[in-house]
Amino acid sequence: MRNVQRKKIKSNYHRGRFIIVCFCISIVFVGLAARAAYIQIIKPDMAVSESNKRTLRVKKLHVQRGMIFDRMGKELAVSVPVVSVYVDPKRLNEGLVKKVLKAAKKQGEDTKLLAENDDLLSKRVKAHYKEDERWKELADVLRVKQAKIDYRLVGDPTKRFIYLQRQITPAVAEYIKRLKLPGIHLIDESKRYYPAGEVTAHVLGFTNIDGKGIEGMEKLYDNALTGTDGRRTYRKDAQGREIEILDERERVEPESIHLSIDQRIQAIAYKALKSAVLSFKATSGSAMVVDVKTGEILAMVNSPSYNPNNLKNALPHKRRNRAITDLFEPGSTVKPLAILAGLEYGSIKEDSIINTYPGYMRVGGSVVKDTRNYGKMSLRQIIQKSSNMGVAKVTKEVPKNFVVGLYEKVGFGEDTGTTMIGESSGLFSPRRRWSDFEIATLSFGYALAISTAQLSRFYATLGSGGISRPLTILKQDTPMYGERILEQKNVNAVLEMMESVFERGGTAPNVKLDGYRVAAKTGTSKKAVAGGYGDEYVNYFAGVGPVSDPRLSVVVMVNEPGGDEYYGATTTGPAFTEIMSGALRILNVAPDLNTVAATKVGANRG
Amino acid sequence: MNTKSSVIKNNTRQPNLFIEILKGFFKEKIVCLLLFLIFISALSVVQVTYASRQKLISQDKLLQQRDDLDLQWRYLLVEQEFYAQHVRIEEIAKSKLGMKRPQSKDEQVVILP
User: Fold this and answer.
1) CA-to-CA distance for A169 and A303, rounded, in angstroms?
2) In 3-state terms, what secondary structure has residue A262?
3) For A523, which DSSP code?
4) End-to-end CA distance of chain A
């Protein structure tokens, strides 16, 4: 038996066959190995690139523009992420053609023939496009007319990039994403919101649609406010999760800007100024509040203003930051400076009496005159009545260079130091020759043109007792470096004189400030036109308060009041008192008028 | 039959292949240890890679969450700013709550020692 079996097995074995089988099998394995080696070692690029196509992704790490805060940390400008939708009409067309051919194949048509028949194909594509409800939904959700969106989508299939809508909310974007439309893409962008709207519009400025600052603070600090987008290259797994980070460039977060603006004061100032401009039908107006102790600008408002969140109605004349760009002759508001020139030079004393009789005088061929003959006046009365004769006589006794030099020292003719975009340094050239009449006009605020900011700086100098500080729009930890340009004693004397403006017989007897002692000066200057002075006026109200320990300088300017009223006190007075008392209360400054009851806590009550 | 069974018995003395292999392994103790270590390290590479991927995935999720929260926060901020507008608050304070700005006669200054 066993022999037979062995024989049988032996008979099955053929050496030749065995070799052939071995050879074939080894050929197969060698072939596989060779192919693998070819793919992996000799030409690996293809395999690598195919793998990368499936797993390698690059993500842009979007960075938002920096925020702008006011001095109390309230947000004035916030960037919020939004999404823009664009269409790639070529891809869209390809997607549609693919769908049409697929449908035709189901129907059993010859797809090749259809693909070559352009007319029929485009007809089918159009029909298919019309049938699809999703395109109507897209138009609805974007709030664009159907015809308009059709034109953009399928108007010209050779185009590659058309915006459908910019800056839509992420919720709408999510909806569009879920529609899964061919050729429709979304890009992340950010939009700037200004919560305070028109109140801070001029200071902050605005950005263009691509997020670049083009006005105001946004432009001035554009570099600091702009961060750098990051990039992350990573591998994803089948579920789209990140599994390996290959390369990462961190995003650079932008800086935030802290302004010196106090939004509460800014809001009060804007409201007061707007109502003044509206009720006196003025062309424009500006107001500024400056902290005299630090040089910080607490409020800077202009009217008319615009809504920075929607620039459709923002005409160029509304966009201008008039407080720093527009120049006017300051009129009587610089009279305290003329008195100071006399006091500083020493030609007059605090208790000097100036004879203005007969109410007019001839200076270098022209006439300087008051509205009536005031006769002999004290310096206090000169300020109270705003006498041109008085200040002209005071400056007459002072060398021209001294007067002009003082006007230059207080900052007329140079910018105020805010470095804001469009700031004007005023029209005042100290180096030229000044005639006697020009010096006289200089004393009551003509022959030079300054901005509201420059006037605020001068009043801030008065408020700080003669220390001139550059103004700043940024929040400061320490006061701005100041330089003493006026004697404390002289400034205090002039501030006392300026309180008389509110008294009976002053230029603003009806303007009452509740609770605080305020030193102020009104100003009514005729506007210069070609060849002389016209019928339009510029009204000013400038002052510092509280007098016992000055904290704020407030300047209100109303340009070309259109009604019957054109006196500074009437048009700008109410706005001035509202801003001054409102701001002082907000800053918790103790009232220094004795109408307010005071209680001492802890001290022995006598 | 007897002779046959003896042959079979002899066969049992044939070395057991598995045991022989094991014996061979234990003879080369260092190689064996190294092999074992290689296995351990290979498995731990797998384990660590897996763990790091999980960590990366959760990191990515958290970063995504952070961005989402940032987005939400910004929208809430804008909303809050809208409701906290100075003009709006003043309007509500005046008309709904009947509040007014204090006059100097309503004020009482307290001077601390």
Assistant:
1) 32
2) coil
3) E
4) 141
- Residue type at position A332: S
Distance, in angstroms, between A494 CA and closest chain B CA?
A: 26
Instruction: Report helix, strand or coil for A138.
Output: helix
Interface touch B71/A602, C-beta < 8 Å: no
Report the percentage of chain B scoring pLDDT > 70: 88
Handedness of CA A374, A379, A384, A390 (dihedral sign): positive
Residue B6's pLDDT is what?
Answer: 47
For residue A248, give how far its alpha carbon lies from the nearest alpha carbon of chain B (Å): 13
Q: Are strands B108-111 and A597-600 parallel, antiparallel or unpaired?
A: parallel
A512 by Cβ neighbours in 10 Å (0-12 / 13-18 / 19+) ranks as exposed
Confidence (pLDDT) at A8: 52
* Interchain CB distance below 8 Å, A595 and B105: yes
**Is the separation of the CB atoms in A267 and A201 below 8 Å?**
no
Q: How far is CA A331 from CA A308, A328, A443, A444, A523, in A?
A: 33, 9, 9, 6, 5
Question: Which of B53, B74, B104 is opposite residue A515, by nearest beta carbon?
Answer: B104
* Residue stretches of chain A with pLDDT short of 70: 1-11, 595-598, 600-606
- Strand, helix or coil for residue A275: helix
Rounded CA-CA distance A384/B87 in Å is 36
Q: Give the active site residues of A.
A: 332
Q: Does A527 touch chain B (CB under 8 A)?
A: no
Count CB-CB contacts under 10 A for residue A419. Answer: 13
Q: Is residue A45 within 8 Å of A38, Cβ to Cβ?
A: no
Tell me which residues of chain B have a C-beta less than 8 Å from any C-beta of chain A: 53, 56-57, 59-60, 70-71, 74-75, 77-78, 81-82, 84-87, 101-105, 107-113
Check the CA dihedral A507-A512-A517-A522 and report its sign. Answer: negative
Which residues, in sequence order, are CB contacts of A574 under 8 Å at separation 6+?
A: A272, A275, A276, A511
Q: At residue B66, what are phi and psi to the nearest 5 degrees?
A: -60, -45
Whether pTM exceeds 0.90: no
Cα dist. A528→A140, A428, A440, A448, B26 in Å?
56, 15, 17, 11, 112
- Its sign, for the CA torsion A377, A379, A381, A382, is positive
Nearest chain A residue to B51, by CA: A243
- Whether residue A80 and residue B75 make contact (CB cut-off 8 A), yes or no, is yes
A417-460 pLDDT per residue, tens:
888 888 888 888 877 888 888 889 889 888 889 999 999 999 99
DSSP A253: P
Best probe of the B interface among A57, A69, A74, A78, by most B CBs < 10 A, is A78
Cα separations (Å) of A202 from A185, A366, A557?
A: 36, 41, 16
Prediction ipTM score: 0.70
Is A245–B81 a contact, with Cβ atoms under 8 angstroms apart? no
Q: For residues A353 and A340, give the distance between their C-alpha atoms in angstroms, rounded to a whole number.
A: 15
Q: What is the 3-state secondary structure (H, E, C) of A528-584?
A: EECCEEEEEEEEEEEEEECCCCCCEEEEEEEECCCCCCCCHHHHHHHHHHHHHHHHH
Tell which A residues from 218 to 257 touch B, by Cβ distance under 8 Å. 237, 241-245
Residue B5: CA count within 13 A, CB half-sphere? 2
Identify whether the C-beta of residue A560 lies closer than 8 Å to the C-beta of residue B70.
no
- Per-window interface: A 32-71 vs B, CB < 8 A: 64
- Reference A453, options A326, A339, A275; nearest CA is A326
Buried b / exposed e over A342-377, threshold 16 CB at 10 Å, is: bbbbebbebebebebeebebebeeeebebeeebeeb
Q: Which residue carries 């915006």 as its tokens? A: A163
In angstroms, the Cα distances linking A539 to A353, A413, A554 are 29, 21, 14
